[in-house]
Amino acid sequence: MLLKEEIAKVVSGEVEESGEKIQEYSRDTSIFEVKPSLVVCPEDVGDVEKLVAWVSEGNQGNWGNQGGQGSKLSLTARAAGTDMTGGPLTDSILVSFTEHLNHISEIGNDYVIVEPGVYFRDLEKELLAKGLWYPPYPASKDMCAVGGIVNNDSGGEKTLRFGKTHSYVLGMWMVMADGQEHFVEKLTPVQLEEKMAQKDFEGEIYQKTYDLLDKNRDLLAKTHPTVTKNSSGYNVWGVLDEYFDLTQLLTGAQGTLGIMTKVKLRLLPKEKFDKLFVVFINDLKQLPEFTSEVMALSPTSLEITDDNTFKIYLRYAREMASVLGANGVFEFFKLFFPDGMMILQGGIPKIILLAEFEGNVEEVEEGKIRAMEKIVKKYHMRGRYAKEKMDAAKYWKLRRDTFKLLREKVKEVYPTPFIDDLEVHVKDMPDFWPKLRAMLDAAKIMYTISGHLGDGNLHIIPLMNIKDPKEREKIWDLTPKIYDLVLSYRGSISAEHNDGLIRSPYLQHEFGDQLYELFSEIKKIFDPQGIFNPHKKTDATTKWSREHVRTA
């Protein structure tokens, strides 16, 4: 019997083995392409439970190439597919959530319960209508879905002040390897004892995870990342505290420990006023002191975009203006005249910085704008207050849509994210930045750089002809060298995009043998048969990743 026919007997949702959906789900926004054997669109949680149970109970059969990885079947969850790492790609069974598990279940005064297939743009619209918001959204907020946000432990422009996704997860519904949906939340010591006393798979998870982390407290203390953001590996540092919190471990696990079917997220009241100040920076040596003074004003965001990105943006300025509603010649001139004047005064800057301030008292935020004007003058920089909404939107489009712009408009080369999420301490940026650019320039790679200056997180997007084998080889030659540079500054190779196929093979090098072995033990506890999202986190190899780099 064909695998499709066998799976169709298990679930009520659609099961597809060919056609456009297979091709579409062979890719995300990464450099990889992996064709799934099947795409299953579960109709409800019951379908997910049945599917996991069927695979877990040994119903593997001899499927040959139908199952991927020889005869072994696995399950990889997918939401919107905007991942830049290959996280939701598989050659076995892909479980897609945007078709049916796409409901907002409940919106409370300070929380929302939502399914993984809900697009964030739809959730944001509902929340803002109630005066609420979810701050750590990524730049891809108009395209991504909740499942990816949680499973990658995403962050974004507001993370500087409000933190990342793991700080907002109040509870998760997960289908574990036993084929049952379990609710996971922060537990008191008494609640933890009750869980560990259970004589079932869930009880084993709590008992074994607690024992493993408890006996390795010294290792955890020694290896805790020193940068403010890290999505690499498993977040084993956030579990043991006053409470025992497995949501911290599962958030950012990329579906390798189970399949999330619903999540409860903390919300905040939306602040009333936001002000944007734009700075053109030429001297990188000024960054630490300048950033320190700006940070004293408590900005909500402190974002940067480099000169290469700005030049590409200017090439399509008329189109960008039209998208914003500035259609006529006068509107276009009005929108870009201030930028033109700043460029005439000092040329195209090496960095464009966006400093955003939000609050409920407009006079306070306007006071911060006046303080920014003084700081910019002190450092002899060029800067201005983007007072009009369309003016501010223009800069946010430059920052948020960089990757989208590159993918849609730059045809002769392809945006190739493989060093797209580095983080070092802000104080090290003036030393790190020129070394990074020198390595890229030496490899003769065109690239753009944007990111979050406030926490030292850079998004580097090389532009390469990946049809050329010599160009593809540069990926694997350059990656470990740049990671070594990052680690020499005690940084992270992934601050918020996570590991996937591109970074998982380097986790042992990043964290060392002991911690990597602990990660492997975590994987075995939750997924003893290795059915959840293989080739990510602990069972990854550069060989498998290299074999699946797309060539078109």
TrEMBL record:
EC class (word): oxidoreductase
Entry-linked InterPro entries: FAD-bd_oxidored_4_C, FAD-bd_PCMH, FAD-bd_PCMH-like_sf, FAD-bd_PCMH_sub2, FAD-linked_Oxase-like_C, Oxid_FAD_bind_N, Vanillyl_alc_oxidase_C-sub2
Record EC number: 1.1.2.4
GO annotation terms (biological process): lactate catabolic process
Record keywords: FAD, Flavoprotein, Oxidoreductase, Transit peptide
Coiled coil: none
GO molecular function terms listed in the Swiss-Prot or TrEMBL record: D-lactate dehydrogenase (cytochrome) activity; D-lactate dehydrogenase (NAD+) activity; FAD binding
FAD-binding PCMH-type domain location: 32-270
Positions of transmembrane segments: none
Required cofactor names: FAD
Alphabetical list of PANTHER family matching this protein: D-LACTATE DEHYDROGENASE, D-LACTATE DEHYDROGENASE, MITOCHONDRIAL-RELATED
Assigned protein family: Belongs to the FAD-binding oxidoreductase/transferase type 4 family.
Protein name: D-lactate dehydrogenase (cytochrome)
Protein source organism: Candidatus Gottesmanbacteria bacterium RIFCSPHIGHO2_01_FULL_47_48
